[in-house]
Amino acid sequence: MSSHRRPRLIALFAVPIALLVLGALFLGRSSATAAPAGSSSSGAASAGASSLSAAATAQSKKKIAKQKKLRKKVIQFTNATRKENGCKPLKKSKALMRAAQKHSRVQAKNQKQGHQFPGEDDLGTRIAKAGFKNAGGVSENAAGAAGGGWFVNARHVMYGGTATKNGTGFTSIGWMESKGHKANILNCSSTHIGVGAYIDGKGAIWWTQNFAAKR
């Protein structure tokens, strides 16, 4: 009589990164990034505007609809968490939504999380070009990892969680589990938010939160 063993779960971890930019000087502060096991953290391809446009066009209507729901859910979680901690809810900014989604596409193109890639403007410039003018302060949270096992939904990217794919467990460290990201989310001085969630061809979701305060 044959027996079947349960698949062994291997714990893999992914840690998101945060960027805080203060005032008009745009002085960045980012936390250390830990690349998930089995992935490469070296090499970043340049992401041009034409390739980003092509990627957006190639996405199915189903994926686009899912991304919209994911982005909305992150805003809901963010404002609920802020309320619990005594901060006013953030207003959704169309400009910040554009900036965040574009950056999520850039992360997907480069297949790594980050705040600025070759050919990409810095955070303050990205937000200004997207239409958010006279920001008193801006900050950004980013998350994502190649392969599709990490940050699989809005709850995981916000609060952390473990998902199983092909018998392997993927543990995501959520933004609220990290000091830098939590500080950005609970910055009561911020007034507006934009969220990006881009699903690449392999099913991985690349996340961005952009925060800003009006002068």
Automatic annotation (TrEMBL):
InterPro entries: CAP_dom, CAP_sf. Residues 77-211 form the SCP domain. Residues 1-34 form the signal peptide. Pfam families: CAP. Keywords: Signal. This is CAP domain-containing protein. It comes from Kineosporia babensis.
